[in-house]
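Handout, page 2. Input:
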Amino acid sequence: MLRLIEKERLKSVKIKEVVSALERFAPLPLQEGFDNAGLQVGLTEAEVSGALLCLDVTESIVDEAIEKGCNLIVSHHPLVFHPLKRLTYADYVQRAVAKAIKNDITILSMHTNMDNAEGGVNFKIAEKMDLQNVGFFAEKEVQGIKCGSGTIGEFAEPMAADDFIMMLKKTFDVESVQCNQLLRRPIRKVAICGGAGSFLLSDAIRLGADAFVTGEMHYHEYFAHEQEIQIVVIGHYQSEQFTKEIFKSIIEDECKGVRAVLSDVNTNPIIYL
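Output:
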């Protein structure tokens, strides 16, 4: 009887409860003004059959959700960044939206709100690097909530620049990185901003970071920082790939019994030859 009661209780979790749990962790007001985080497609009153967790939403991701019996997709990057004026299957966004609607799949995106949240994307990157004393840099407050656009932390023991880069390549499964001249002093303090984080480079320098790790930077932004700071660009996808682990942890902690499935699809549109 107890097993039947427990089974019935686990069945009763609705999509809106999963959405609420994720948005409590990373409230939508934390997102940047350009962003479109939150509910993208679908309704939230249905019971959750499973949540597929990913970085990007593509047609392949929707197919994976169908195959794995998940009626909820939680992504980092929003599927719909700009308003859809029509639904004609003209591009991958329209096709993914149409396929999700046809198959009763709800899509939720947790983007810059998850970037800016305590314990969010940049904290996860720091965790993977085994940094200590991790906290925000470029800290701010939104509606009374402490948040920030990046993290900064320290290694227990300093590391040579070439060893640091080899560690990043191994940890984030990066075939090649982009960096400036190798630093000739040991690296201890590291500033991080996943994705396109070059706007925080000056803050990293101001705070005395030995290295700055991000996913994207423009050519001219590398100039004039030789022996000032070690810049390492590991790729946008690679820097944020572990975000789905955050989603999984939140769902399993806050929505007991909900099946949280890490996507097996690599949605990185960039290939390395």
